[in-house]
Amino acid sequence: MMIVRLVLLPLLSLGGIGLAAWTVQTGNQPTPKTPGLTPPAAAPFPVRVSATGIVEASSRNVGLGVARGGLVVALPQDIGSNVEAGAVLLQIDDRDTRARLVARQADLTSAEQELARLRSLPRPEEVAPRLAAVGQRQAQFEDAQSLLKIVTSIADPRAISREERTRRESAVAVAGQALAEANAELTLVRAGAWAPDLAIANAKVAVAQAAVDSVRAELDQLQVKAPFAGKVLQVNVRVGEFASIGESPSPAIVLGDVSTLHIRADVDEMDVWRLRPDAPARAFVRGNAQLSAPLRFVAIEPLMIPKRALSGSRREQVDTRVMQVIYALDPKALPVQVGQLVDVFVESLSAPGGAQTPAKEGPK
């Protein structure tokens, strides 16, 4: 027992100390880095400003809404279709409106016909009877005058009674008034429509035309038309659904001009001072660092906004503010889609520490 205690226990102790030393030694080795699924893009400039960019249409991604709510009966254009300005993209049920248009057009036709009737006056058929009446009254007046002249030409006043003389004088006066009336009616007919009547008829035509235009405008509002030539990027409504008016998080149709793509790059507020518009810039496709294309500066939106486009990096600060810089990209240069995130690198004036670097001439 004495030999076991004196020999075996020290050996076991030494073995335990050696095992602990070996465990510590192997545990202190650096853990090898696990390669990512895709290598990140290598910056093409030694001193640069890095930004996250989102691809958008050169016209912006325009969400089109409906002016009047109703049942969707047609979607003439499919998603991804290229359309011209004015093309119908969505049709709301317009049967009731078209029926009202027919009624308003009938009212307009009636008002126009009444105005045309007034403008066509006098009618030849109305003038002829008035002329005949004037001739008749003229003959009666002349006959009454002849009878009165016979009475007045008698030298002996006893040959005719006073009552007969008075009766014939009255007959001349009545015939004269009848002739004046016939002439007045002829003048009235020949004068045509009265100016105030024409004004009222014109006003009725204007009111009827305004009613027709109003219904036609309503018909036009029951269609969603393309305000510019572009591509249908998204359709969020289906035939048979009810399209509502007002602001919505999902517009009925999203349209954009993708003949030239824009990249909206978010430049961190800490790097804004190092950015210059004429500096060369390049965009890289995420997932394939070999795909990249040069960018052309378009504009800077000087209003600083909270950061919205997130890259997903663990080191990314989400409580910072950014300045958005817009660059143009040839859609044939990169296989990207509207709404896709890309990595953007812009050659900067100086390093973050303040060391100045010579500025290279940007693309013309």
Task: Walk me through the structure.
With 364 residues, the chain is α+β, with helices and mostly antiparallel strands. It is built from five helices and 14 strands. The chain has three domains: 48-58 and 258-347, Elongation Factor Tu (Ef-tu), domain 3, CATH 2.40.30; 62-93 and 222-253, OB fold (Dihydrolipoamide Acetyltransferase, E2P); 105-216, Helix Hairpins. Strand 11 and strand 12 (292-306) form a beta hairpin. Mean pLDDT is 85; it is low at 355-364.
Short description:
With 364 residues, the protein is an alpha+beta fold.
Compile the SSE list and pairings:
Layout: H1 2-27, E1 48-57, E2 62-64, E3 70-74, E4 82-83, E5 88-92, H2 95-119, H3 124-152, H4 162-191, H5 195-221, E6 223-225, E7 230-235, E8 242-243, E9 253-256, E10 261-268, E11 281-285, E12 292-306, E13 321-329, E14 341-347
Antiparallel strand pairs: 1-10, 1-14, 2-9, 3-5, 3-8, 4-7, 5-6, 7-9, 10-13, 11-12, 11-14, 12-13
